[in-house]
């Protein structure tokens, strides 16, 4: 069984048809064109799926980064106060309650934070644990986003290859039909 070439995440490589006449038997061009169109459709489906995943990651990454920066800020304030032997001063902040509603608050700095993990789950972490978790999540999101970008580029190349193959087979078929058709005088 021949090994099918693929990228690191398993997307198969599109074959390039060097010699169309060897690839297609006489009268088999229609079946070949249908299989090429099917492959293009599969690649485009994968592309659409990856574009949705990319959009999701791009929307989550700033939120993770912003939360990480806040936890680091709280940790630094808490450490500075501890180093001076005092309790941390309350933090005055202006935060968003909803899309159009903002409120002022005085927040006492503690050594714990609550993080939304998704699916209506919130857990309490120490500042150090929260920073480690958010750093891991941010790095994983960046890595995944980079891989998705690579996969999208790879898919664009494969779609282009299949479109070129389709055009070459179609042109070969037209040329072949003209040569085999009886000439009219």
Question: Which fold name corresponds to the CATH topology?
Answer: Helix Hairpins
Total domain count: 1
Shape: rod-shaped
Low-confidence stretches: none
Distance linking N and C termini: 51 Å
Helix content: 55-70%
Based on helices, strands and strand pairing, what is the structural class?
A: alpha+beta
Radius of gyration: 29 Å
Main sheet specs:
2 strands, antiparallel
Total beta strands: 4
**CATH architecture annotation:** Orthogonal Bundle
Residue-averaged pLDDT: 90
Coiled coil: 138-165
Subunit structure: Heterohexamer of two PFD-alpha type and four PFD-beta type subunits.
Function: Binds specifically to cytosolic chaperonin (c-CPN) and transfers target proteins to it. Binds to nascent polypeptide chain and promotes folding in an environment in which there are many competing pathways for nonnative proteins.
GO biological process, one term: microtubule-based process
What report would you give on this structure?
α2 packs antiparallel against α3. A two-stranded antiparallel sheet has the order 1-2. The chain has 3 helices and 4 strands, in the order ααββββα. The mean pLDDT is 90. 11% of the residues are buried. β3 (112-118) and β4 form a beta hairpin. The chain has helices at residues 20-23, 29-83, 127-180; strands spanning 91-98, 101-107, 112-118, 121-126. The chain has a single domain, classed as Helix Hairpins, CATH 1.10.287. The chain is α+β, with helices and mostly antiparallel strands and 185 residues long.
Summary keywords:
185 residues; alpha+beta; Helix Hairpins; 3 helices; 4 strands; rod-shaped; chaperone; coiled coil; tubulin binding; Prefoldin_subunit_alpha
């Amino acid at each position: 069984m021949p090994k099918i070439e693929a990228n690191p995440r398993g997307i198969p490589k599109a074959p390039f048809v060097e010699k169309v006449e060897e690839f297609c038997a006489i009268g088999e061009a229609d079946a070949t064109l249908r299989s090429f169109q099917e492959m293009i459709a599969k690649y485009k489906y994968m592309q659409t799926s990856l574009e949705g995943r990319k959009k999701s990651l791009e929307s989550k990454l700033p939120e993770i980064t912003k939360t990480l920066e806040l936890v680091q800020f709280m940790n630094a304030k808490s450490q500075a106060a501890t180093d001076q032997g005092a309790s941390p001063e309350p933090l005055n902040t202006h935060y968003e309650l909803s899309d159009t509603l903002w409120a002022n608050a005085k927040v006492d700095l503690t050594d714990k934070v609550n993080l939304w993990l998704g699916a209506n789950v919130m857990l309490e972490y120490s500042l150090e644990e929260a920073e480690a978790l958010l750093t891991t999540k941010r790095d994983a999101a960046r890595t995944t986003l980079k891989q998705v970008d690579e996969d999208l580029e790879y898919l664009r190349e494969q779609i282009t290859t299949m479109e070129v193959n389709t055009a070459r087979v179609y042109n070969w078929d037209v040329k072949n039909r003209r040569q085999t058709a009886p000439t009219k005088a």
